[in-house]
Structure to design on (99 residues):
């Protein structure tokens, strides 16, 4: 029997995903739709690019979630920077073909 079959792993979450999604939404809202591709594929590529360049912050409980949300200014700046780089990189080289 596998680990996933023996234990409930559904609460295991990378909190950085939430941070990146919130920041990605904020930065994309500041960019006109006609300036870059905002299709599903490009948004996913942007999120993946940013997340792959950030240290994951996994949690498995509500307390872990609250702790992660009180992260340092350094983490917040890192998320902002990596999301901005992701938007720039993907918008300049979209793989979706919608340019």
């Amino acid at each position: 029997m596998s680990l996933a079959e023996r234990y409930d792993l559904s609460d295991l979450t990378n909190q950085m995903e939430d941070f990146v999604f919130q920041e990605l939404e904020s930065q994309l809202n500041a960019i006109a739709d006609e300036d870059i591709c905002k299709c599903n594929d490009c948004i996913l590529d942007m999120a993946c690019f940013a997340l792959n360049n950030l240290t994951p912050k996994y949690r498995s409980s509500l307390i872990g979630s609250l702790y992660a949300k009180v992260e340092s200014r350094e983490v917040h700046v890192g998320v902002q920077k990596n999301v901005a780089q992701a938007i720039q990189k993907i918008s300049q080289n979209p793989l979706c073909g919608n340019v």
In short: The mean pLDDT is 88. Residues 34-94 form one domain. The first helix runs from residue 3 to 6. Helices lie at 3-6, 15-29, 40-52, 62-69, 73-92.
